[in-house]
Amino acid sequence: MSRELHVFVPVALRALMDRLAMRIEAAAGAPMAQVIDLNPAIYQRIAAGEAFDIAVTNPHFANVLFTSGHADAACHRPFGRVPLAIGRRAGADGPVRTTEHEIAALLSEAQSIAYTGAGTSGHTYLAALKGLGLTDAVMSKSRAMGAGEPVASVAAGEIELAVVPLTSVLSSPGIVPAAVFPEQLGTHIDFSIFLSNAPGTGSAAVVAFLAASELDAELAAAGVIRFQWT
After folding, report:
1. What are the strands of the beta sheet with 189-195, ordered from one edge?
2. Strand partners, 20
3. What is the value of pTM for the model shown?
4. What is the DSSP code (8-state) at residue 112?
5. Which of 102, 117, 153, 162 has the highest count of CB atoms within 10 angstroms of its CB?
6. DSSP track, 44-108
7. Most distant CA pair in the chain: distance in Å?
8. SS3 readout for 197-222
9. pLDDT, tens digit, for every residue of 79-122?
């Protein structure tokens, strides 16, 4: 059997990749070891020379790694686009808000808000607050947390709202969507797939599997929207 493939997976896609794991291994003809981390940390680890076969992360990080020679751009493929979302504790009443006005009101009315401080979604949230003119009003009740902590704190009833990728809301027990940010706010988070400079046998087949249109409906149900390069 081929050696184990090491795959960098963003925290936001952990649950989805867990569901796809057996099919990924079947496509590769090799076992897979997922390395779960935040997108900025995935970039930093690869840039520092950590060995891997396949990585999924934000395209802007991938492009820097190609330029620096730490990864191979030849098999770079778009994977999916995940809307930024707001999660609330399951059982709370209210519609899923989708307009700028509704989201601004939700954030303004909240007593406490958690976000992933070191993650791409956290940086995106802070930029959205600025774009909505809410930084002064909302930052004082916003709390930066580590990976996975915002949704856990909401599920436990410790924090009212969690601003995280939609995939994280949909895959977290005890959490339901309170809002999904609209595309015009520029808050959707893109993910792409690429290979190392010396990928193990079966790595290219995994990229082909993950980019295949046959997965589109399953990804959409998990909160991932397919996209093409512009």
Report:
1. 32-37, 5-10, 54-57, 189-195, 72-82
2. none
3. 0.95
4. -
5. 162
6. HHHHTT---SEEEE-HHHHHHHHHHTSSEEEEEEEEEEE-EEEEEETT---PPB-SHHHHHHHHH
7. 57
8. CCCCCCHHHHHHHHHCHHHHHHHHHH
9. 999 999 999 999 877 899 999 999 999 999 999 999 999 999 99
